[in-house]
């Protein structure tokens, strides 16, 4: 009887602790400082987890919410050991104060300094600060990533260590895998607005074989390809053992999807053939080989057109402009729209007819919100 009673008591304690954590999460999401203070105090009574409190604190800093930061810090006043640990505890190489400084949260910086927090960590550590921000959902993500980019944080920096065992590290369970770049982290978390921002600031979209396979998942295919084409980031380039074009052409023979799924593998192959400024050596060799004659007849006709038919002067000018602008293309489009260029010319430069041909209109409206 006693053992059974003890077991029930333990289960109730775990459930009660979980309920309080949920209350804290709700209070944090609402940004309610007073409620945060009350539930943090309650959480401390049940026994605290420094990693959990560290995560709440980092989330509050990422959201630039001074009231919640105050509520968390003052809520642990009864635990001097915990408060001392929080002052030097790091999330992805930076202490709380250092994150507040990097993100230019002046009021939070002043408050944490008064509470004797220390600023430790530099941009040369093993973690990508940009990826570390993307992995934790926050209302100010675009602002935060833009701030780091303006501070010259590397948009292509991969995580070089995710197994750091330093006891001063805050393990929040939010993982960025080894060698993943900010662009891939944004792709995995579905932040297409962040992907657009990264692309327009020099991020390299095709970095490893893994990316090719991600593009073929139906739920992300249209979004990613629309974004890459809009940002002028679709290029003929080797990626691992093959290139994106060769990979898609090979898949177009074997992959069959319902007709309403847009763009299909075949659509993507046609899209690349129609938009590439130039083909890398591997692609040219593949397009001229006998292997190519196993693909769809429409694709074969497009390949013949691309390789042998002369281009119009307008198309040559469009391709030269896009090649010259590179990843600055979308910024240029935003500029000429503001300057009142004729919409017909802008549509032509953007390959608008291809958007309408290969993508659903409702998807186009949704994707364009990421590029504003």
Radius of gyration (Å): 26 Å
Which shape, going by the Cα principal axes?
A: elongated
The main β sheet shows up as:
2 strands, antiparallel
Oligomeric assembly: single chain
Number of helices: 22
How are the strands of the largest sheet arranged?
A: 1-2
Low-confidence stretches: 1-12, 162-167
Average pLDDT across residues?
Answer: 77
**Through-space gap between termini:** 65 Å
Helical content class: 55-70%
Number of strands: 4
- Report the portion of residues in β strands: under 5%
Sheet/helix structural class: mainly alpha
Order of helices and strands: HHHHHEEHHHHHHHHEEHHHHHHHHH
Can you walk through the features of this model?
The protein has a two-stranded antiparallel sheet with strand order 1-2. It is built from 22 helices and 4 strands. The protein has a domain at 205-372. Residues 1-12 and 162-167 have low confidence and may be disordered. A hairpin with a 2-residue loop joins β1 and β2. Helix content is 61%, strand content 2%.
Task: Kindly summarize this structure in a few lines.
With 372 residues, the protein is mainly α. It has helices at residues 2-30, 33-45, 50-62, 66-75, 80-88, 96-102, 106-114, 129-134, 141-150, 182-188, 192-199, 209-215, 218-230, 244-254, 265-275, 281-287, 297-308, 313-325, 329-338, 343-349, 352-358, 361-368, and strands at 90-91, 94-95, 238-239, 242-243. It is built from 22 helices and 4 strands.
């Amino acid at each position: 009887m006693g053992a059974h009673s003890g077991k029930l008591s333990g289960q109730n304690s775990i459930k009660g602790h979980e309920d309080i954590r949920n209350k804290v999460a709700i209070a944090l999401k609402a940004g309610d400082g007073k409620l945060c203070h009350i539930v943090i105090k309650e959480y401390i009574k049940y026994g605290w987890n420094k990693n959990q409190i560290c995560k709440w604190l980092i989330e509050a800093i990422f959201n630039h919410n001074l009231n919640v930061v105050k509520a968390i810090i003052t809520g642990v006043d009864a635990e001097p050991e915990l408060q001392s640990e929080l002052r030097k505890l790091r999330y992805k190489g930076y202490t709380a104060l250092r994150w507040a400084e990097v993100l230019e949260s002046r009021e939070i910086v002043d408050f944490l300094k008064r509470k004797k927090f220390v600023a430790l960590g530099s941009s040369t550590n093993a973690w990508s600060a940009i990826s570390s921000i993307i992995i934790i959902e926050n209302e100010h993500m675009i602002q935060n990533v833009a701030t780091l980019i303006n501070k010259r944080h590397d948009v292509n920096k991969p995580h070089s260590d995710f197994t750091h065992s330093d006891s001063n590290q805050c393990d929040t369970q939010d993982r960025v895998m080894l060698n993943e770049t900010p662009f891939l982290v944004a792709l995995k978390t579905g932040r297409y607005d962040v992907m657009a921002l990264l692309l327009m600031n020099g991020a390299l979209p095709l970095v490893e074989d893994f990316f090719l396979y991600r593009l073929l998942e139906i739920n992300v295919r249209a979004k990613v390809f629309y974004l890459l084409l809009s940002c002028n980031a679709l290029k003929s380039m080797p990626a691992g053992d093959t290139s994106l074009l060769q990979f898609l052409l090979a898949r177009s023979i074997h992959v069959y999807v319902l007709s309403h799924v847009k763009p299909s593998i075949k659509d993507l192959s046609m899209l690349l053939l129609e938009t590439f400024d130039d083909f890398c050596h591997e692609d040219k060799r593949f397009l001229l080989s006998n292997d190519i004659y196993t693909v769809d007849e429409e694709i074969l006709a497009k390949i013949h057109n691309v390789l042998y038919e002369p281009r119009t002067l307008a198309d040559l000018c469009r391709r030269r402009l896009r090649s010259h602008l590179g990843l600055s293309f979308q910024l240029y489009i935003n500029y000429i729209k503001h300057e009142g260029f004729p919409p017909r010319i802008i549509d032509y430069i953007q390959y608008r007819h291809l958007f309408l041909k290969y993508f659903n209109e409702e998807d186009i409206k949704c994707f364009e919100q990421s590029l504003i």
